[in-house]
Amino acid sequence: MAVIVLAMELTAPGPAASHPLKLVERAQPEPAAGEVRLRVEACAVCRTDLQISSGDLAAKRPGTVPGHQIVGRVEELGEGVDAGLRGRRLGVGWLGSTCGECDLCRAGQENLCPGAAFTGWDRDGGFATEVVVRADFARPLDGDADPVALAPLLCGGIIGYRAFRLAGVGEGQRLGLYGFGASALQVAQLALAQGCQVFVVSRDRAGRERARALGAAWVGAPGEDPPAPLRGAITFAPAGAVVVDALRSLERGGTCVVNAIHLDGVPGFDYRMLYWERRLMSVANFTRRDSEEFLRLAQSIPIRTRTERFPLADANVALERLEGDRIEGAAVLVP
Ligand SMILES: [Zn+2]
Ligand SMILES: [Zn+2]
User: Fold this and answer.
1) What's the total number of domains in the chain?
2) What is the pTM of this model?
């Protein structure tokens, strides 16, 4: 009898409550050349999964399985894959593959490759008991660590690290974080470990308390501006107005990085907020170099994640809670 895999499939995009992912049984996927099949140990839930399942990000193919923060053990190898990977624990993120040949790929900007395929959007992701991934886009992880604690590093952590790099805030300088969910929590630890002063704006009181406890220099609610201008800011909240708040708080030459794959729009703002060579930019995806660097730092600092675990079949509960901002840290599915 064929081996069956359980997966949460996207059938009809829409709000989580009325358009849930569907639990289905599928035939076990076979890894093609260069791929491996993982038995999923944990898969964290990202706001992007919510935006794909709700239809804010148009589905690329019917029946996609979301999930792009996958921790799993290699159980089957495709042709050409190093046999030493068998049984190893790997981490898989949003960047599922790139063309490897375009100018951007060659220039070290594979995160911008027009031919990139994304895990849980172009390819089936980790809201499943097993998943097939490209071996060269997966990273070895500590086999002894708690897989639930590792999973949120793989998107919020890595993209947060790239955003932090782009914000250009060094030791002793001021960094603003707008929104304090799973990704900002990791960036704050990274920035504090590098000697930055961290300023946090969060609408959520528990988030503000966590930021204070972690060692933030200042914590405020939306509409409150940090007491001193910022060298760099990162916005995490999926609201355009926050981008203007962050821009307003930058010092001359400062950079605001928008960490969102989808925003409803950014309100108009006075050009003087942008003058003096302030920069407003987005962060898109990450490169394999980002993930290698970040995962090394995450282990050495070490970065601690806050998680709430859910059984795989409760993926819709996790998405609904995320939609309502009712998750403490990151939701993680455990098959
Ligand atoms: Zn993500
Ligand atoms: Zn490319």
Assistant:
1) 2
2) 0.94
